[in-house]
């Protein structure tokens, strides 16, 4: 019986632990700062600005009423388990909690009734998409069975379709809420602008069974929608009421009218509740939305908290106040749009272009015909008549008739006319534009030292997907030169972003071998001996099809890349002795055809990377290798032996070496052949004498005699 009682007691304590509220916002921020220490300065700057903003007197008795459009992304293995009604119940709670019209606000103790704050912030489910189409403000995405998302870095995986989540709507116009299954018993996590998150991650993530006030899987103590109220409080700049100081009263939430509090409160405490930081009644304000009590025991924001939230709304995320997301769009019967003109764009490699457009039917009637025109620069119009059957609010990608361009840079536009033979209801969405350039090809040998002011140099291109930090020209910094190409990773606050610097299209003119040489200088912010750190990475890739595909031939990061041996917390500017000459054999990747070289920076906020003196040259192959197809050299050899192929045979299986007595010495599989079409054997420890190199193919073999001498 005693054992049974102990087991039941243990289960009760375990269930109580599981039932305790757990918010991941502070932990996610602490981990982000640990990964990227420079982020601490960003957060500190925002905190200082908010503290100053709270001191500014407000003239109005009540803040201006605003309504913020909300899009709810339900990302679950069964996204229908969160119904539209459940979503609306959460919006209803937010509207009451943020205007102090919730019925339980009167349960606030009398001593604090005068501190109750009304932010006058209202919420609506979005009535239009970012593209201006009708919406109910709910997006449903199906995940793998049982899939849950980690809060690390604010649960970014749930925020991108590429990682199984749902892409954010424009965070300047919508408050994004993701409803999903969170790992680690967390109920929610917020990603505010004030914490330095990228724009496409801003918003809050809520555990699906702590969202709204109705639902078949709703938790018994988190069933009043207060988890979203709490996390959106973080979104608007509020900290936990105890200041996340681990109970030592050393920090506060920065709000004057919330009592100092040691640590979080769980369950439904009895008023008054005192602690080390507020040892006398009325004690701590455990019923504040920014504590950890059960939903039924959360009742208020204070007037001071409202001042901070309004500061963030009016100064940090101000575009939300002017969004039209709560206004339903006008839909016309006939409305054809060119949503995108994806090609040509940027650098192209062929003078013959066949533009592609994304045609979308924004009308209420099926689209069965439309005229599409495009124009390159001031050239002639090229017309195309499309017919088909495109349902309302669906789209298709079309390839338009071809035309030719000369070397130069161009603007291109495409537009629709006469959908279903009728005037277009909304001409404002008819046209899409882009810009592209067609450059002269370059021949080998090729050299670029970035000495001229233009950057990228003529024929070069930059790919900068996030439109943030990218390759630039560094004046007065070079390897025995006056300039170089630079990536300022020290100031880059976003991890894993790729930025490409592309050479012109190069023609090797049938040369047998092609080699790249370049100078590099790099440093890191973190101690280079740190294990498991996310380092900046420099890659060299080759593309033979205008960047549709590419092959990586070089990749270095951290200790293998840097030329400044120690951690450096200031911007790295290399001294003359802090450059290294690296080389890459491009031969196998270019296949004797036209190609581009790509220098790719993958940033993880370490420090600057420089490249200079790009030199791409050709080498003619050994005539014996060209004639025989395979060469074993040096022969005789003192130890190291190279087996080099002019072209790697498809049916080759392996290469083995035997001594004169027929005894097996060593062997390498075909996969050991490197990018120079070569495999290396080491016979240094073998005795002098005659050896035989045996090339073993699928249905044949070839043997070459080799001499080993000292």
Report on this structure:
This protein folds into 4 domains: 24-99 and 121-240 and 304-322, Collagenase (Catalytic Domain), CATH 3.40.390.10; 336-438, Immunoglobulins (Immunoglobulin-like); 442-619, Jelly Rolls, CATH 2.60.120.200; 623-708, Macroglobulin (MG2) domain (Immunoglobulin-like, Sandwich). Helices cover 13% and strands 31% of the residues. It is built from 8 helices and 36 strands. The strands form 9 sheets. Strands 1, 2, 3, 4, 5 and 6 form a 6-stranded mixed sheet that branches. Strands 18, 20, 21, 24, 27 and 29 form a 6-stranded antiparallel sheet that branches. Helix 3 packs across helix 6 (303-315). The relative contact order is 0.08.
Any chance you could write out the topology, listing elements then pairs?
Elements: H1 2-19, H2 25-35, H3 39-55, E1 66-76, H4 84-97, E2 121-125, E3 138-142, E4 175-180, E5 188-191, E6 203-207, H5 226-235, H6 303-315, E7 336-343, E8 346-348, E9 352-353, E10 356-361, E11 367-376, E12 382-390, E13 395-399, E14 403-404, E15 408-417, E16 431-438, E17 442-443, E18 446-448, E19 461-463, E20 472-475, E21 483-487, E22 497-502, E23 506-507, E24 513-522, E25 537-543, E26 551-557, E27 580-585, H7 587-590, E28 596-603, E29 609-619, H8 623-628, E30 630-633, E31 640-645, E32 652-659, E33 664-669, E34 678-682, E35 689-697, E36 701-708
Parallel strand pairs: 1-2, 1-3, 1-4, 4-6, 8-16, 17-23
Antiparallel strand pairs: 5-6, 7-10, 9-14, 10-13, 11-12, 11-15, 15-16, 18-29, 19-22, 20-21, 21-29, 22-28, 24-27, 24-29, 25-26, 25-28, 30-31, 31-34, 32-33, 32-35, 35-36
Helix pairs in contact: 3-6
Keywords: Disulfide bond, Hydrolase, Metal-binding, Metalloprotease, Protease, Signal, Zinc
Domain Peptidase M43 pregnancy-associated plasma-A: 166-314
InterPro entries: MetalloPept_cat_dom_sf (IPR024079), Peptidase_M43 (IPR008754), Secre_tail (IPR026444)
């Amino acid at each position: 019986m005693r054992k049974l009682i102990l087991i039941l007691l243990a289960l009760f304590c375990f269930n109580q632990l599981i039932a305790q509220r757990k918010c991941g916002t502070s932990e996610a921020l602490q981990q982000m700062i640990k990964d990227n220490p420079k982020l601490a300065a960003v957060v500190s700057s925002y905190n200082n600005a908010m503290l100053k903003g709270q001191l500014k007197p407000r003239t109005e008795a009540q803040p201006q009423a605003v309504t913020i459009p909300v899009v709810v992304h339900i990302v679950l293995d069964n996204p229908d388990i969160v119904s539209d009604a459940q979503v609306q119940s959460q919006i209803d709670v937010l509207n009451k909690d943020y205007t102090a019209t919730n019925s339980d606000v009167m349960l606030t103790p009398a001593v604090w009734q005068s501190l109750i704050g009304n932010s006058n912030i209202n919420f609506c489910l979005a009535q239009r998409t970012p593209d201006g189409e009708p919406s109910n403000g709910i997006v449903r995405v199906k995940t793998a069975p049982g899939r849950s998302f980690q809060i690390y870095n604010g649960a970014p995986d749930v925020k991108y379709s590429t990682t199984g989540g749902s892409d954010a709507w424009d965070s300047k116009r919508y408050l994004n809420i993701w409803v999903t299954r969170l790992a680690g018993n967390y109920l929610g996590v917020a990603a505010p602008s004030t914490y330095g998150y990228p724009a496409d991650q801003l918003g809050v993530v809520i555990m699906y069974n702590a969202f709204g006030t109705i639902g078949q899987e709703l938790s018994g103590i988190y069933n009043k929608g207060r988890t979203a109220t709490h996390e959106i409080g973080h979104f608007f700049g509020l900290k936990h009421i105890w200041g996340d100081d681990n109970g030592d009263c050393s920090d506060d939430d920065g709000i004057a009218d919330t009592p100092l509090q040691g640590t979080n409160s769980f369950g439904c405490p009895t008023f008054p509740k005192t602690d080390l930081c507020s040892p006398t009644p009325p004690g701590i304000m455990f019923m504040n939305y920014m504590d950890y009590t059960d939903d039924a025991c959360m009742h208020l924001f204070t007037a001071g908290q409202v001042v901070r939230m309004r500061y963030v709304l009016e100064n940090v995320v101000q575009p939300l106040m002017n969004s039209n997301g709560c206004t339903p769009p006008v839909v016309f019967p006939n409305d054809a749009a060119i949503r995108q003109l994806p090609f040509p764009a940027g650098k192209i490699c062929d003078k013959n272009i066949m533009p592609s457009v994304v045609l979308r039917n924004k009308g209420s009637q099926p689209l069965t015909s439309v005229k599409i025109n495009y124009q390159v620069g001031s050239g002639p119009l090229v017309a195309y008549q499309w017919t088909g059957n495109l349902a309302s609010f669906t789209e298709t990608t079309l390839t338009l008739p071809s035309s030719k361009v000369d070397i130069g840079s161009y603007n291109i536009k495409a537009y629709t006319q006469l959908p279903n033979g009728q005037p277009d209801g909304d001409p404002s969405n008819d046209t899409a534009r882009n810009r592209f350039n067609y450059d002269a090809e370059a021949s080998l040998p090729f050299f670029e030292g970035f000495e001229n002011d233009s950057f990228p140099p003529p024929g070069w291109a930059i790919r900068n997907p996030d439109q943030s930090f990218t390759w630039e020209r560094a004046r007065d910094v070079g390897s025995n030169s006056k300039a170089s190409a630079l990536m300022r990773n020290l100031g880059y606050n976003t991890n894993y972003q790729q930025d490409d610097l592309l050479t012109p299209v190069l023609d090797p003119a049938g040369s047998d071998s092609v080699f790249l040489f370049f100078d590099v200088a790099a440093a890191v912010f973190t101690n280079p001996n740190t294990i498991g750190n996310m380092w900046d990475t420099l890659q060299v890739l080759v593309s033979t099809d205008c960047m549709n595909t590419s092959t990586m031939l070089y990749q270095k990061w951290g200790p293998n890349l840097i030329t400044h041996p120690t951690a450096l917390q200031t911007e790295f500017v290399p001294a003359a002795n802090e450059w290294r000459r690296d080389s890459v054999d491009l031969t196998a990747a270019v296949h004797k055809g036209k190609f581009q070289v790509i220098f790719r920076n993958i940033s993880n906020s370490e420090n600057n990377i420089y490249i200079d003196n790009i030199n791409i040259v050709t080498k003619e192959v050994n005539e014996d290798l060209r004639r025989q197809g395979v060469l074993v050299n040096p022969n005789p050899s003192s130890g190291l032996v190279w087996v080099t192929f002019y072209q790697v045979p498809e049916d080759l299986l392996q290469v083995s070496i035997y001594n004169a007595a027929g005894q097996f010495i060593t062997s390498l599989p075909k996969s050991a052949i490197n990018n120079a079409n070569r495999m290396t054997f080491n016979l240094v420890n073998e005795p002098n004498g005659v050896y035989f190199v045996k090339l073993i193919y699928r249905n044949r073999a070839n043997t070459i005699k080799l001499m080993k001498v000292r």
